[in-house]
Amino acid sequence: MSIEAALKSAMKTIPDCVAAGYVDMETGMLLGTSVRDQEDAEVLDSLALAVANLFQGGGVAAFEALLRKSGNAVTENPGFGEIAVFSKDRLNIFLRTQAYPDHVVCYICRNSANVGLALTKSHLSLGPVAAAV
């Protein structure tokens, strides 16, 4: 299955999902996308450049260092595994894949999405999406 087909299949299960993308943080490249309309494709292009900073930026690194110092972080797997960002009209879900730690799957949902269900379904999609790479 292609990465685009895997993302499209995942979008069908995630409530109110309007776009999905697969980002390589090392290069900042969007390796695959699935969108409902062209406007969301443009958002994904911009988002791909920001994902590496979101997961690996200075603020995140400092926060992780504080967690390690306090003994509240696992040292063998540094870095956040997931980040959810709420904006005015969207829920943005970013999940780092276990198979490829420098890759992130991004899902953009309408703010009407059930957050718990969207997060759960996003997690369930990680295996098939990463396997398509």
In short:
This protein has 133 residues and is of the alpha+beta class. The protein has helices at 3-13, 38-56, 58-70, 115-131; strands at residues 17-24, 29-35, 82-86, 90-96, 103-110. The protein is globular and about 45 Å long.
By DSSP (H or I, 4+ residues per run), the number of helices equals: 4
Element-level helix/strand string: HEEHHEEEH
Mean pLDDT over the residues: 87
> How many DSSP-defined strands?
5
Helix/strand-derived category reads: alpha+beta
> CATH first level: which class?
Alpha Beta
**Are there runs of 5+ residues with pLDDT below 50, and where?**
none
Keywords:
133 residues; alpha+beta; Beta-Lactamase; five-stranded antiparallel beta sheet; 4 helices; Roadblock/LC7 domain protein
